[in-house]
Every structure is written in structure tokens, then in C-alpha cells.
Amino acid sequence: MKIALCKKQPKKPAKSLDDSVYWKRFANKRGGLSAATPSAWPMGSLVPEYEDEPEKEEQEVQIELTSTFSQVTSEVRYNYVSRAFEQVVERDSLLSLLELPSKVLRKDEARGGVARLCRPTSPESVDSDLDEVVDNSRRAMEELYGGTVSKEELARIDAQPNPFNFSDRVSLTTKIPMKPKPRHPEPLDLPGLPRVAKVLERMVAQNIYDDIAQDFKFWEDASDEYHPLEGSLLPLWKFKYEHSKSLLVSDICWSPVYADLFAISYLSSGVDGGGEEMGGMLCLYTLKSPSTPERVFRTPFGVVTARFHPQHGSMLVAGRTDGSVVVYDVTAPQHAAAICSSAVKGKHLMQVTQVRWVRTQPGEELSFFSVSLDGRVTQWHLHSACLVHRDVLDFASCRQPTKPHSSSDKVVLEGAATCIDFRPDHENIMLLGTDTGAVFQCSVASTTHTLFRYPAHTSPVRQVSWNSHHHGIFVTCSLDWMVKVWQYDSPLIQLDLGGAVAGVTWTPHSSSVFVAVTDEGRVHVYDLHVRKCHPLCVQGVVQKKRGVVTCIAFSPFHPVILVGGDRYFCKVVTIASKEYGMLWLYG
User: Fold this and answer.
1) Which of 98, 131, 153, 547 is a good FRET partner for 8, with 20 to 30 A between their CA atoms?
2) How far apart are CA 345 and CA 328, in angstroms?
3) Alpha-carbon torsion (394, 400, 404, 408), positive or negative
4) What angle in degrees, to the nearest 10, is found between the helix axes of 107-117 and 123-145?
5) What does the radius of gyration of the chain's CA atoms come to, in whole angstroms?
6) CA 165 and chain centroid, separation
7) Can you tell me the distance from the alpha carbon of 55 to that of 39, in angstroms, rounded to the nearest whole number?
8) Do domains 196-241+456-587 and 246-399 have the same CATH topology?
9) Domain ranges (residues) in the chain
10) Burial code of 354-366, b = ≥16 C-beta within 10 A, e = fewer?
């Protein structure tokens, strides 16, 4: 297509001054100069004469508009509607539009014009008018371009949008076609992926907590040289789970098989005060990855206590606020069904305060004991799919007044059991702490009498613990601020910690060292071999009026102590003493 543009027209000759309209007006005003010519005027020599410039012929400028009409056959694109790859065909629609006159009426414009001008009385008349306009437009195009353009090409040109139709809007956006609903990706069959991901996660955690891990193993305090009979504390890790912010850490238990594994039980913080039950949780943590728990078991009721089996590291039993006991297999997936007690099969009527496993011979059924506020001390045997119970003691049945003819050696049980522990060398003998402050030493084999009653405290007993090295010594703590060390029937040492004692435990590495923690968050470390009345170290683990400590646990493998409280935390702190070569950690 060739178009001639920018062609200059020749200049017209300039008018002489004699023919000027302005000169004639000036001459009429002067009177005597009406017939004169500018050349005859005295000042005519000052007026420049106009000369015609020679006309210059300019070359004709030609602009050639070309358009490329090509089809790309080597490119494919994915069509989300047909869900397949299709060949891309590029067409230049601008060339087709330039070949047509601007009087062609598009279908949407025709429909809009009819809708504005015609106001029919029925929808059928509107459709008939629109179809008539469209048909007339199509026939006009066929009559005009029937000899040069095919009907299919005319239909394609008529169907494409008009690029010259501008709108009043600020911008126009491309219409995105509706995509089908995406399907869920199928899981990859990669059996080794979880293990590799776990290894990578622990490698990243080890790099993040490298400084803390070095302090955990090799930290020494230089100030111990100036205080030979005292220890020092160093905070290490803080374990917390974001989904347990509204829960209370009720108990902590170390695994006796895996050195770095421990379990934390959670319950609603308002259950003890008569608040609404919000459910509970049981989380398994490891020192190799302090940031997130390894396993999370959610429960409809709060978990009060939890204990690992001393021989089978995968078995974990928990006692809940509704009185049920549940046995978990921690190696199974999180959604695996657990074995739970029921009301038909001996479930407690009130919350379970503590559970303890007992050692069994190979081939025997696994067994554990539970104590509850309903007054029952129950032994449970784990079968393949159920729990079988046997009530060893019932405090409620012993609250009847003693008959006058009863034997004098029989001790009457009062109150309800709050804690339990078994003698390391003789697991048929157990200690029971009650909510009245008394401690009972009972025999599991005999259900008719109590061996001994200790008038230990004046408030509920929080925890009792046998010494793992000297089997005739145990320690008790209570809400009356007292920690007492007992041998047989008399207390050897009585310590006032200045606040309600939340828990006490012996260290598994020494027969003379125990650790106690108060509700205010002060940890007391005592070594009876060095001093009997003053602790080696006292350190607060929580800020004042910010939280209450509820439990404490000492690791059987490492000198590590964990402390839990009501602000969903669990801390680890190091205590070192060069004088006696001790390295303790608490949290």
C-alpha cells in the first residue's frame, strides 16, 4: 500500500502594494494621493519591492505500510480449560481491520444501539430486532467484500474485539478466563523423605543453638574459684509451643531409654479453680530440636500427669482430669488410636493425680498404678486392646469410724491420695501422699492393712520421692513450705523454703543431692554431704508475679533439670560447681 504524503504546493505571487486595501484607505484619507501609486509617493523608495521567489520542486515522499502475517508452529502453551498443550497460532488482526471501512457495525454496538433506541414491550421482540440488525450487517459485509474475502474470514473479523473503541475508564484489564478447580496433588511415594527432612531440621537447629549446646556440655563458671561451697546458674533452652498458650504445664517426665527425650503434659489453667474445661495436650520434645515438639497428642480433657515405661521407651501413660488413664505408643502416628479406660471398665470418678509404671518380667503384661482424688489406688494391666483394673486401696471406704474391737496395729486411711512412688529395691512397697498432709507406706500385695503412717505435713503433700541409692530414705514436700527428708519412721532434716513447694526430686547421680522448686519459681539445690541447712544455690527461673511453677524433673542420663509452669514454658538452666565436680542443669 503506497500513500503520497507531505507534497508542497507552489507559492502564489505576492500582491503589489498598489492593490493593497490598506494603501487605498490611506490614499483616500490624504485626498491628493488617491490616484497616485506607491511608487510615485515620495517615500515609495523606502518600501521594499516584493519579488517572486523561484518555485522549487520537492520530491514526493512515499511511506510504505507493511504488515507481517505469520503463524508460529514451533511454540506450544498449556490450556487450562482443555488441560492440554496446544500449538500457538499468531495472527495479525490489525491488517484485516485496516482493510475494512469504519462503517462496519459490531454486534455488541448494534445490540446497545437497539437497546437504547427501541423500547419493546416483550423480550421476544428485542431478540428479533437484534437478530435482524446482525443479519443486515452480515449481508452488507458479504455484498461489499464477497468477491475478495471469504465468509469464514468475514465472520472471524466480525467476532474479534474492536481495538479502536476507547472507554472512559482509567485503564482496561485483560479478561482472564475461568480456570477449572485444581486437583489436590497426589502424595509422593518417597519412603525416606520424612527421615531426611528430620535430619535437615536438626542440622539447622544445631547451627542455631550451637552456642547453647556448647554451654550445655562444657560450661564452667570462673567465679566458682572464689565460692568453693556454692554453685552458679546459667539459663539454656526455653521450650514452648504456640498452640499451648492458654494451657498449664502440669507434669514433666524424662524418657528412661532415650537420653534426650521428655514429655510435657498440659491442662486448662482454670480447671483447679472450677473454670471451664478447655481440653489438654501431650507433647514430646527432644534436646536435639528445642524449637518444635516431636509429637503432639491432643486430648478432649486436660492431662494431669504422664510417665514413660522404665523398660519400653515407646510406651507412655497419662492421667486426665476426667478420671481416665490413656496408654500411648509414641512411635505410632499422631492420629493412632490409644488405649483408654472407660466408665464400664473402672475409670476413676475424679481427676487422676499421678501414675507410675512398675517393672515386669519378660513375657508378663505391662502394669501401672494410678491414684485419684476419688480415693482409689488402682492397678492396671495392659492387654492387647483394653485395660483391666484392680483396686488396691480405697480411701473412701476407710473413712468409716473405727470399731472399738478393731486391732490396734491397723492404721485408718484418711483423705485422698495425691502422689505415689515405689521403693527401688522392693516395688511391692509404695509411698502415698494425701491431701491431709499424711504419708502412708503400704504394701501392694496386702490390701488389709497399712505398714506405717507418717504425720509428715499440715497441708496437702505435693510429691514423694525415694532415694535411688539409699533405699531407706525418701523426701517429701508440701504446701506448708516444708521439705522433709525421712529415714524409716522419723524425719532427719526439715527445711523451710519460704513458700509453697511445687516439687522435689533426688538427683540420680548422687545420694545426697536433691532439688526443690517453689511456686514462686525459686530453685533450691541442696547437698546434704556439704551442708544440711543451707542450699548450694538458689535461683529464680521466672519473673515475679509473671508465672507459677508447677513441676520439676531431673534427667536420669544428663545433669539436666526441667521446670514447668503456668505460662506454657519449660526452661533448662546449668548449675556448675568445680569443688565437687558437679554439673547440673535445670529449666
Assistant:
1) 98
2) 18
3) positive
4) 140
5) 49
6) 51
7) 27
8) yes
9) 196-241+456-587, 246-399
10) bbbbbebeeeeeb
Residue located via cell numbers 480411701: 395
Class level of CATH domain 246-399: mainly beta
Cell of 153: 474470514
Collapsed DSSP state (helix, strand, coil) of residue 30:
helix
In this structure, what C-alpha cell is assigned to residue 138? 452480515
Q: Quickly name the fold that domain 196-241+456-587 has.
A: Methylamine Dehydrogenase; Chain H (2.130.10)
Q: Are 450 and 411 in contact (CB under 8 A)?
A: yes
pLDDT in tens, the chain (587 residues): 444 444 444 545 555 555 555 556 656 655 554 444 555 544 444 444 445 555 556 666 666 655 555 555 677 788 888 888 887 776 655 545 455 444 444 445 444 544 444 444 455 665 677 678 778 877 877 777 766 777 787 777 777 665 555 455 555 566 666 666 666 666 667 778 888 888 888 888 888 888 888 877 777 777 777 777 777 777 788 888 888 888 888 999 999 999 889 999 998 876 655 566 778 899 999 888 888 888 888 899 999 999 999 888 889 999 999 999 999 988 876 666 688 988 888 899 999 999 999 988 877 888 999 999 998 999 999 887 789 988 888 887 665 444 443 444 556 778 889 999 999 888 888 999 999 999 999 888 765 556 788 999 999 999 999 998 888 899 999 999 999 999 877 889 999 998 999 999 998 888 889 999 998 888 899 988 888 888 888 888 877 666 788 889 988 888 788 888 876 555 655 544 433 333 333 33
Q: How far is CA 148 from CA 3, 106, 145, 154, 447, in A?
A: 22, 20, 5, 10, 112
Asked whether the CA dihedral 250, 256, 260, 261 is positive or negative, the reply is: negative
List, as own/partner pairs, every contact residues 98-106 make where C-beta atoms lie below 8 angstroms and the sequence separation is at least 24, other chains included. Answer: 99/149, 100/141, 100/145, 100/157, 101/144, 104/137, 104/141, 104/158, 105/133, 105/137, 106/158, 106/162
Which cell numbers in the block locate residue 221? Answer: 563458671
DSSP states of 209-262: THHHHHHHHH---GGGGT-TT--EEEEEEEE--GGGTTEEEEEEEE-SSSTTEE
